[in-house]
Design goal:
There is one protein chain. By secondary structure, the protein is α/β, with parallel strands linked by helices. Helices cover 35% and strands 13% of the residues. The protein contains nine helices and eight strands. It has helices at 26-30, 49-57, 78-82, 106-119, 134-145, 178-195, 207-219, 238-247, 260-277, and strands at 34-39, 66-70, 95-99, 123-125, 169-174, 198-203, 225-229, 251-252. The radius of gyration is 25 Å and the shape is elongated.
Length: 300
């Protein structure tokens, strides 16, 4: 039974949280920089991985305009994605370019620099998607999808594979030279901790590197090696990967491809740049535009 002397509870309106909780938020005045994904390939390659990543990114950055720019081919070129992002006085930054690579990739970096110079776009370029701890999670998933490891292997460490289909050693493939191999080394260490087996990085573009790592992993007792490419996809041709695996008597898993985890890392890279230039910092009273309306008439 309700108490008649008690006032009814007030149903206060919910206040939106986050950076758009106020209609005078910083972005509504200054503008949100465009996010441009720089894909190291041609439009349509690997089942349109750029378009897939855009769809996944929208769940993390629904307020941001997201574009795809390819560094090769004639369609959806990076220069087209940057064409209208020239400097504007009242905007501190027009765009952020996120390279869709998992490690330093000189060819992609050079193509991005040339596109920015050709268009005069006011953009910042982030690091690639790696090295990052979450890449080991995606590699683990790709290996599990191919049946080479158990999906729940983390923390269930066993150096003996339960069947001949499962691998007892992994070569984490990198593309982009020594710096890319170094970045893949971080992923290899984390993947080894998840799987409890030998995991070593190698340069897929250098036969001597793959041969050396294949020998090392064999010396460690591995008889069922698997090459796990730590790449998004367009950086290295699948046929080359297949031929490489046959040459060194190994199997291989699919590249990382488009995934929600990679989209999350791309969103984090975007946020890092915005934070560095103060775009995501709340505006001060002096920076906000003057209020308008009958309650805010200028003093006479």
């Amino acid at each position: 039974m309700q108490n008649p002397d008690r006032l009814p509870p007030r149903d206060l309106p919910r206040r939106r949280s986050g950076r758009h909780r106020n209609p005078l938020s910083f972005d509504s005045w200054i503008g949100t920089p465009t996010l441009v994904l720089a894909v190291p390939g041609v439009a349509g390659d690997t089942d349109g991985i750029g378009a897939q990543m855009v769809d996944l990114l929208r769940s993390y950055r629904p307020e941001v305009t997201i574009r795809v720019g390819c560094i090769e081919g004639s369609d959806d070129r990076l220069t087209e994605a940057l064409a209208d992002l020239e400097p504007v006085d009242e905007h501190p930054l027009r765009g952020v370019v996120v390279p869709l690579v998992t490690a330093p990739h000189p060819a992609t970096d050079q193509a991005i620099s040339e596109a920015i110079e050709a268009t005069g776009a006011d953009v910042r370029v982030t690091d690639g998607l790696g090295p990052h701890p979450m890449l080991a999670e995606v590699l683990h998933l790709r290996l599990a999808e191919a049946g080479f490891v158990r999906a729940d292997r983390m923390r269930l460490i066993s150096v003996v594979a339960p069947s001949t289909t499962m691998t007892d050693g992994v070569i984490v493939g990198a593309v982009g030279g020594p710096d890319a191999v170094s970045a893949a080394g971080v992923t290899a260490v984390l993947l080894a901790a998840r799987l409890g087996i030998t995991v070593l990085p190698a340069d897929l573009e250098d036969d001597s590197s793959v041969e050396q790592v294949r020998r090392q992993i064999a010396d460690a007792g591995c008889v069922r090696p698997v090459i796990a490419p730590s790449i998004v996809g367009p950086e290295f041709d699948t046929e080359r990967l297949k031929a490489l695996a046959e040459r060194y008597e190994a199997r291989y898993s699919a590249p990382l491809g488009a995934s929600s985890t990679l989209a999350k890392i791309a969103a984090l890279r975007y946020a890092e740049v915005l934070n560095s230039v103060g775009v995501e910092a709340p505006a001060t009273a002096d920076e906000l535009p003057s209020p308008v309306g009958s309650r805010h008439r200028p003093e006479s």
